[in-house]
Design a protein that fits this description.
The chain has 16 helices and 19 strands. By secondary structure, it is an alpha/beta fold.
Length: 474
């Protein structure tokens, strides 16, 4: 745990009693703060009390002594309207912050020589993979590394920073919205596509939240920017007017970029010196298939090179990376059919990355739909043998693909997994995969995408092997 001393002797409101909220309470108490904690969910309150936490109904108390509100990232901050707790905090002039801000304040209070290096990763797709990959490379290079943020456990639940250590943080737009003081030594913007519009009001608001990560950087901070989409390419151009070349590295998954890192053909190159140099063949990174992962590799390589890791050490570490759970994770094979868990693909752009990697695909899709639908996936429909639709998106997705794809309305994941397995085995097509890549959020039927992916893994483990005619004597 990282004790937070910034509010010692003062009272802090904590709203949201999930994993992050409970870690925040512990960190504040350890740093000498007084804490009033609450959650709208009766079940969450009961679970917290069962762990010994004393709660304080923030709806009923006087807020006059509240020094700050620490808000769970998932609670509405501005759109579609501020949560009541946010309005109460504004009424008394208390800042509304998140656990990442508390971490940042604690780091800033440390002597400069004892501060850890902080690497922050944002963007729409690829954040988790890139975060885990950077952490893996640094560990393989012998560094003391903590991976946290929007991946794994809460940052305040980690061991306190030590001199020479590295914190690699996946940062969502929700988390950045609640942060004002985080100075990343390296900040990464992978890509941007419309997402979380309900939270930010529109695409401009969403993109603005992402850009704040770079505005918070100190004068020596390095920015690593993907330039494969128009919006981030424009952002890179604007940063070029503000930063020297040594502090700004472009990355690409398909074209040459000067003074950066890029993938071209089957090679990854770095152009950080006099002439571009090939660093590794993409085929060595077996757990990272597809062009989207080429961008993730380029981002990770650019980052660790700026942190002083040698190119060969980085390349060998990338090759040994085992992949990320719930992101194109093979969870089984049956009768020549592979089962791929891509539950983290919670929007169409993320699902597109997996659909580009396999053929033929027996595709399990659906959940709670997001804006934009499946339009961007049309070029990949020829790869899909059949779709199996689940959750709240079932009807909407059926209308979008009707007449373009064979599909079956399955309702739930168990029914879809069984049906996809049945058809894939019956068709017997070489290279077939049953792919859970939902293109939708999980919250209609599961607590989160991890729970959805874990359920798929369990369902695959319970599938029976096909029985041949010879075995039955028919």
């Amino acid at each position: 745990m990282i004790p937070v001393h910034a509010f010692k002797g003062r009272r802090v409101a904590v709203f949201g009693l999930g994993r992050t909220g409970l870690a925040t309470i512990r960190a504040l108490l350890a740093g000498g703060a007084e804490v009033s904690a609450w959650d709208d969910s009766e079940a969450s309150r009961a679970a917290a009390e069962a762990q010994g936490f004393v709660l304080d109904d923030l709806n009923r108390r006087d807020w006059g002594d509240i020094a700050a509100l620490v808000l769970s990232p998932g609670v509405p901050l501005t759109h579609p309207k501020p949560h009541r707790m946010v309005e109460l905090a504004h009424a008394v002039g208390a800042p509304v912050i998140g656990d990442i801000e508390l971490f940042a304040l604690e780091v800033q209070a440390m002597p400069a020589k004892r501060r850890p290096k902080i690497i922050g990763i944002t963007g729409t797709n690829g954040k988790s993979t890139t975060t885990a990959l950077i952490g893996h490379i640094l560990r393989e290079a012998g560094r003391n590394v903590t991976v946290a943020g929007n991946i794994g456990d809460a940052v305040l639940a980690q061991d306190p920073p030590r001199p020479g250590s590295y914190f690699v943080l996946e940062l969502s737009s929700y988390q950045i919205d609640l942060t004002q003081s985080l100075q990343c030594d390296v900040a990464i913007m992978l890509n941007i596509t419309p997402d979380h519009i309900d939270r930010h009001g529109d695409f401009a608001g969403y993109f603005a939240a992402k850009q704040r990560l770079f505005a918070m950087q100190g004068p020596q901070g390095v920015a690593v920017i993907g330039v494969d989409d128009a919006e981030t390419s424009d952002f890179y151009s604007r940063l070029r007017m503000q930063r020297p070349d040594a502090q700004l590295l472009p990355i690409s998954s398909g074209r040459v970029v000067p003074h950066g890192v890029y993938a071209l053909g089957d090679q990854v190159y770095e152009a950080l010196g006099v002439a571009p140099q090939s660093v590794m063949q993409l085929e060595r990174a077996r757990a990272l298939p597809g062009r989207h992962n080429a961008q993730n590799i380029a981002a990770a390589l650019a980052t660790v090179r700026m942190l002083g890791i040698g190119a060969r050490v980085a390349a060998d570490a990338i090759a040994s990376f085992g992949g990320l759970a719930h992101r194109q994770e093979q969870v089984g094979e049956l009768g020549g059919v592979r089962f791929i868990n891509d539950s983290k693909a919670t929007n169409a752009e993320a699902a597109m990355q997996a659909l580009a990697c396999y053929d033929p695909i027996y595709w399990i899709a659906g959940g709670r739909p997001k804006a934009g639908g499946l339009e961007v996936l049309k070029p990949f429909f020829p790869r899909i043998a059949k779709a199996y639709l689940i959750g709240e998106a079932e009807g909407r997705f059926a209308r979008e693909i009707d007449g373009r794809l064979a599909y079956e309305r399955c309702g739930d994941l168990a029914t879809a997994t069984a049906a996809a397995c049945r058809d894939a085995l019956a068709d017997g097509r070489p290279g077939a995969v049953v792919l859970l890549s939902p293109a939708a959020a999980s919250f209609d039927q599961f607590a989160n995408f991890e729970a959805r992916g874990d359920a798929f893994r369990s369902l695959v483990a319970g599938l029976d092997a096909p029985v041949s005619d010879a075995e039955t004597g028919a």
